[in-house]
Amino acid sequence: MKTIPKTLSGFMELYPQEQLVFDKIKNTIIDTYKSYGFYPLDTPIIEYSDVLLAKAGGETEKQIYRFNKGDNDLSLRFDLTVPLAKYVSMRSNELVFPFKRYQVGKVFRGERPQKGRFREFYQCDIDVIGENELSLKYDSEMINVIYDIFSKLDIGSFTIKINNRKILNGFFKYLNLDNKVTDILRIIDKTDKIGIDNVKEELSKLDISYDKINEIISFMNISGNNDEKLKILKEKYNDNELINTGINEIEEIINDLENRSIPTKNYKIDLSIARGLDYYTGVVYETVLDDYPNIGSVCSGGRYDNLAEFYTDKKLPGVGVSIGLTRLFSKLLEENLIKIDESSASDIIIVPLCDNYKYIYEINSMLKNKNISVSICYLDKGIKQKMKYANKMKNKYIILIGEDEVNKNTIILKNMIDGNQIEIEKNDLINIDKIIE
Amino acid sequence: MKTIPKTLSGFMELYPQEQLVFDKIKNTIIDTYKSYGFYPLDTPIIEYSDVLLAKAGGETEKQIYRFNKGDNDLSLRFDLTVPLAKYVSMRSNELVFPFKRYQVGKVFRGERPQKGRFREFYQCDIDVIGENELSLKYDSEMINVIYDIFSKLDIGSFTIKINNRKILNGFFKYLNLDNKVTDILRIIDKTDKIGIDNVKEELSKLDISYDKINEIISFMNISGNNDEKLKILKEKYNDNELINTGINEIEEIINDLENRSIPTKNYKIDLSIARGLDYYTGVVYETVLDDYPNIGSVCSGGRYDNLAEFYTDKKLPGVGVSIGLTRLFSKLLEENLIKIDESSASDIIIVPLCDNYKYIYEINSMLKNKNISVSICYLDKGIKQKMKYANKMKNKYIILIGEDEVNKNTIILKNMIDGNQIEIEKNDLINIDKIIE
């Protein structure tokens, strides 16, 4: 009686070719994070439930994977921010601040499974945590990181939408709606998803007057380029201190982005961006692929005044970015924005056509010394079967080595796309990287 | 009321500098796996309990993290081999065989916590799975991979001990003890840990005669170099078919290792290596650090006839290697075999001493284009505080940029170890990689 092998729904498990592309994207993200000098961090997947849930609200608690083992009440992490808060507050005397860390790992949420939703998914996070204070330069550095990643990923043009929670909070205070800010922001945050009309309707359910709803909507839709938007805000809300602080911060950041030579087409002020999470208190940003707006935000983040307030009295302000890689990858697949068929597990495959393995391994070593990854096909079968295997591996080039080649001190390099093959002297393999690139 | 932030015992959580070194080792392992053309694989951490436990025995079931979510009986994976068996048997019609995959990920075992034991730990696995048959060349490739990794890790000399379960099985059949092979092998496997005398005592508890125990012990300790051991085995057990098959396989593999130019000092036949796991059926190997024998095996693996027999009728023979990275790292730390203090999160730190960020970012970009990772210190503090921060980051070199440098189109490169500093023309930064290496 065999057990039926199956994988849970809502848990991504890719085919080998797909996984190659997934990992390539993941490595682009990680390499970019590293290029900015973020430390790696790798916290456990399992934590004490009371630690993970110190700050969580109702929805999170319902979704969490929670269980007992021995006497312990345990949970699987549902994001990488709470573990960071735990980590930093446990070690606030030993860490050097500002503390820059990246963490790329799986998190778990037992949501009802639906298309595009995952119960186990990768988050790719960076955060910078300061002690008491943290320069705004780190906010613009975050935007620089996002710009670098989405430029390198080469999946079309993108826009980083920037807002400031201080502007929003100041505005709602001015409307005397500051007791409803969280609820309002949660609704506004859904604008892209549900449309303006539904936003209006949901806002009216909060007992907000028709006039105020219209003022909210027109505020969110202040138009123009970045300078024009800032000018209108300044003129209209000149006497609102919180809004002014928010405007100054955005101006400082935009000035810094200009110094960084980030093209202005890649970022814009969008007053409707709120980010639902309660802990953001300053600049927030979302990233959209211009040609695929229905994918929604593919990378978001922001500034928070106090990361670890549930664990410590120390004031630890921070700023962070998060990419939901599993969802992003599934969307890119869906939209045919990534090509699966062109990837191969190694740069080259050697197909031995004779038994002189001493020679074959010598060739293999020469290639590896040039940082070329090599798979050798050890199939105990005829040439036809071996070529069939090589073909399925999707390599652009393969190397054939038979008795003739051994005797002549050569190899055959075959281009699997056009079928051409050339003979190369063993000693000329020193330049193989120029030939196969 | 604050929640006390804490991490579960038995769960590794490193300091930033430690994590840098851990990741460096992990990346060396992954890069080596990739250089052989193994596909990446990333199966879920959570699986159906009946799938994970299809083949497991008593100990595993007791240790597993198992819980219900909704109607599902779920478990966290306790190794990467069972998920591979699941994966391959689910996709045996689509995968191309031999299927080479690596997987590096966390697995979970709720053992009683003790020094050096972890409940969450990394396994770094490779396996090659064939359809019906699989060349012995893949067995020697595994040994080649191990050789490459431990050479690159540069943690001292090491020996890969090689045996063949066929030789062991043939020998125990010859002793009429084939009904007790699993128990005997489990005891023999502990030789390094508990010593010969305790092995003898435990064997006697299996109702094995004094004479046979002595023959077992002397068999395990056949001495000499590889050729001499094989010669003795051949002479003594000439008429035992299983032993002969085992000897031939080892001979073929050793011949292949010679063709691969792997130094003979790095591998040796050791007839006492058994690998407790039931599924090994052919060549098995363990790796020990010569100067730290009490660390035990740091990398092991072997050949199995049938990976997925609990899920499918297809015959899928395989050969694999596994490195328990979390345990290895903790042992290397314990033995002072890795240096934590010499690692830094970026190649260089820029410490701005003026506000001309346009210039600073230009320098930053020039460095990044040379593939140098750069952290910029944005502390809003005086030079003393900034230098203190830079010092704690453990970088060998930092770059200082003040008004003078901006005006002269230069930078100051400071060696943090000897304190020397030199001024470099901006245009000469094109050669910075040669200066700081």
* CATH superfamily label of the largest domain in chain A: Bira Bifunctional Protein, Domain 2
Percentage of residues in strands of chain A: 15-25%
Mean pLDDT across all amino acids of chain A: 93
What shape does the CA trace of chain A take?
elongated
Number of strands of chain A: 16
* Helicity range of chain A: 25-40%
Which stretches of chain A are low in confidence, meaning pLDDT under 50 for 5 or more residues running?
Answer: none
Task: Identify the most extensive interface between protein chains.
Answer: A-B, 93 and 93 residues
Class of the largest domain in chain A, according to the CATH hierarchy?
A: Alpha Beta
Q: Specify the structural class of chain A.
A: alpha+beta
User: Radius of gyration of chain A, Cα only, in angstroms?
Assistant: 27 Å
Number of domains of chain A: 2
Question: What gap, in angstroms, lies between the N and C termini of chain A?
Answer: 51 Å
Question: Strand sequence of the main sheet of chain A, in spatial order?
Answer: 1-5-6-11-10-9-7-8
As an assembly, this protein is homodimer
CATH structural fold name of the largest domain in chain A: BirA Bifunctional Protein, domain 2
* Major beta sheet summary of chain A: 8 strands, mixed
Given the structure, what is the number of helices of chain A? Answer: 17
Do you know the CATH architecture of the largest domain in chain A? 2-Layer Sandwich
